[in-house]
Amino acid sequence: MPDVFVAKAAQFADGERRIVRAGATEIGVFHWQGQYYAYENLCVHQGGPACEGLIMHKVEDVIAPDRTWNGQKFSKDEIHFVCPWHGYEYDLKTGECAADRKLRLKSFEVVKRGEDVYVVAG
Ligand code: FES
Predict the structure, then answer these.
(1) How many domains is the chain partitioned into structurally?
(2) What does the pLDDT look like over 37-59, one tens digit per residue?
(3) How far is the CA of 88 from the centre of ligand 1 (A)?
(4) Does the beta carbon of 86 lie inside 6 Å of ligand 1?
(5) Which end of the chain is less enclosed by CB atoms within 10 A, N or C?
(6) Whose CA is nearest to atom 3 of ligand 1?
(7) Looking at residue 48, which CATH number applies to its domain?
(8) Does the predicted model carry a pTM greater than 0.70?
(9) Is 51 in the pocket of ligand 1 (CB under 6 A)?
């Protein structure tokens, strides 16, 4: 299958995403902190459009040295996107399901050719 054009790099700002189609497959492409990530837009739970969901920093519990719970905070490093159907969360940098790291979205390579961004679909 030929590579799929995603966007002109200048028109695909950091923090944005695009949904492209490669034949019958939808692919979500993320531009995050200077890197590109691409995953099949098909949630491992019930096939929802996982890549179209909210992008947010992982919520982490804050545990004190005495093991008491001190509330929650947003992770500085780990970013998730959340399937809009039932809330499965995926690590934006790996495609792994946050609740079960054995589950992951199918990933695709993203390449930049000149000023154009492509997904290697096949
Ligand atoms: S289909 Fe994605 S959480 Fe259910």
Answers:
(1) 1
(2) 999 999 999 999 999 999 999 99
(3) 6
(4) yes
(5) N
(6) 86
(7) 2.102.10.10
(8) yes
(9) no
